[in-house]
Structure formats: structure tokens, C-alpha cells
Amino acid sequence: MRTFSRVLSNSEISSSFGSSRRYGSSPLAKWQQRRRTGTLANKTAALEGFRFPWPFPKKPSPYYNTASYLTIGAVATVAKFLFIRAANELVVHNKERFMNLWMDRSRPLITISNHRSNLDDPLMWSFISTREMYKNIDRHRYTLAAHNICFTTPLHTRFFSLGQCVPCVRGEGVYQKGMDFCVEKLNENGWVHMFPEGRVTKEPLRFKWGVGRLIEDTVIPPLVLPIWCTNMSSVWPNHPPYYPRFGNKVEIHIGDPFDSRKVLDELSLKKDDSNEYLYTATTPHCRSLALPPVMMCCVR
């Protein structure tokens, strides 16, 4: 717990902003950053680092939606096989909190979680029953995925995009096409899942800016739900040989939802950089929501 608190201390949050402002804070510098990433200022610019045509159609056809739902369902079914009977044990705490928010289509939903295994997603959603999955499959999560890992071939690009994984180019900042796409989905009252640490890590890392950007640019203030997963890397390790392990217990801790409306109301009274304020306001809150599961892990 000390490590988690140290990594996300307010002093380190402040210093992380200083090191991240490569482009400065002036309007011109921000415009240059947005132009470089090919979004906002010029949405017709190419997405740097992503070698394939954008995989998501503007108006999905019934055929595309069917293919997407089948992909999501197939992946969810395979993930469940790792937790059937004596394979591995999956324990979820406060599932009803997640289900209530998932089925409430009046507000956009952002879920965030720690990232300890390459297969955190989709394994972490195995607590959703098959009936619940197909009943709400049209509001299944979109999640950012590294473009240089999941989108390396046309076939992989097709598969992961049908599974509602969105390409994210590391190093391109929060103003890139994948982030814009997630904002669009939230503006449709959709669900976006993020790993705010930005990569798979054994030790907790500082949160990056992505959640703040999504909150700022979504028309209806989204609800933010923190989730903490334990022991997931024991089921699917991060080192070779890559195959599932059995006889392990995985716990999913679902925290209290955080209404971003309050932060946005406070933001409207301020004149400083909105992204920085959103980051410093939301990160400590999400950290405090995640601390109880961390404490339980330390006790065990």
C-alpha cells in the first residue's frame, strides 16, 4: 500500500505534469500538438503510427454489428472456460454496482482498473453471465489497445476492432484518433474501459491523462467506476511460455462510482488548464477508491 500511495502522491502527480508538457501550455503549442496527432484541429490528417485504414465504420451495417456481437460473445465464452468448475476461482465483490451502471443507458460510463496481465480484458469480465452479456451486448465496452501489439496485421486489426478494441498509439498523447473515437462513444452514452496506468505493470504507476480528457470532452458528465483485480497474472502470466494456469483464485473488487459532474462544475469556476485540473482532481479520488482492495491484498 505504501508503494501505491507513493506512486500516486500529489507531489509526483504535479511533477508528472511538468515532464509531460513537451509542447508547452500556450494555445499555439496545444494546437501544434493536436495537429501533429491528426485530430481536433485537422481530423483529416493521417493517424501517425497506425498503418491500416481506420477499422470502425461511421455507420455500422447490420452485418458489421452481427459480426461484432459474435466476436465479443466468442471471446467472452472462451474467457469463461478459464473459470469453470475447478479450473480457477473467480470472486467478484459488489457486482450489482457494475450491473446497475451498465444497464443505465442515461449516462456514459467509464470503468478504470489496474493492469497486471495481458489478458486482464477480457478475463476480468468473466463474472458477467451469458444472459447478461447478450442482453446488453449493444452496450459492451470499448477499450484502448496498443496499436503495435494488437493491430499489427490486417487480420488482427479486423479481429480486435470487431471486439471493440480501439487502436491507441503510444506517445501520441490524449489528442489522437482513438481517444476521439472513445469520446464519440461516450457521447452516445456508451461504455469505455481504460487502464489508466497505460501498460501492464507489477507495481502501481501514476495515472495518465486519458480519463481526464474523456471526462472533459464528453457532453454528459460520465460516471467513473474503479475496479481492482488481484492475481490475474497467475491465470495468464506475462512471461513465456504463454498458456493458462489453473488452481488460482482471482478477485474483482468494484468500488463506488464517481460522478464527474461535480468536478466539471468546479472546473467551470477555474481558469487554469482544464486537463491538469481534471487530472489532479480525479486521480486522487480514484486512488482512494482503489485503496481498500489494496489493503485487503496486503492483509492476505
UniProtKB/TrEMBL annotation:
<keyword id="KW-0443">Lipid metabolism</keyword>
<keyword id="KW-1000">Mitochondrion outer membrane</keyword>
<dbReference type="InterPro" id="IPR000872">
    <property type="entry name" value="Tafazzin"/>
</dbReference>
<keyword id="KW-0496">Mitochondrion</keyword>
<keyword id="KW-0472">Membrane</keyword>
<feature type="region of interest" description="Disordered">
    <location>
        <begin position="1"/>
        <end position="24"/>
    </location>
</feature>
<dbReference type="GO" id="GO:0005741">
    <property type="term" value="C:mitochondrial outer membrane"/>
</dbReference>
<keyword id="KW-0808">Transferase</keyword>
<dbReference type="InterPro" id="IPR002123">
    <property type="entry name" value="Plipid/glycerol_acylTrfase"/>
</dbReference>
<feature type="domain" description="Phospholipid/glycerol acyltransferase">
    <location>
        <begin position="109"/>
        <end position="232"/>
    </location>
</feature>
<dbReference type="GO" id="GO:0007007">
    <property type="term" value="P:inner mitochondrial membrane organization"/>
</dbReference>
<keyword id="KW-0999">Mitochondrion inner membrane</keyword>
<feature type="compositionally biased region" description="Low complexity">
    <location>
        <begin position="9"/>
        <end position="24"/>
    </location>
</feature>
<dbReference type="GO" id="GO:0035965">
    <property type="term" value="P:cardiolipin acyl-chain remodeling"/>
</dbReference>
<protein>
    <recommendedName>
        <fullName>Tafazzin family protein</fullName>
    </recommendedName>
</protein>
<keyword id="KW-0012">Acyltransferase</keyword>
<comment type="similarity">
    <text>Belongs to the taffazin family.</text>
</comment>
<dbReference type="GO" id="GO:0005743">
    <property type="term" value="C:mitochondrial inner membrane"/>
</dbReference>
<dbReference type="Pfam" id="PF01553">
    <property type="entry name" value="Acyltransferase"/>
</dbReference>
<dbReference type="GO" id="GO:0047184">
    <property type="term" value="F:1-acylglycerophosphocholine O-acyltransferase activity"/>
</dbReference>
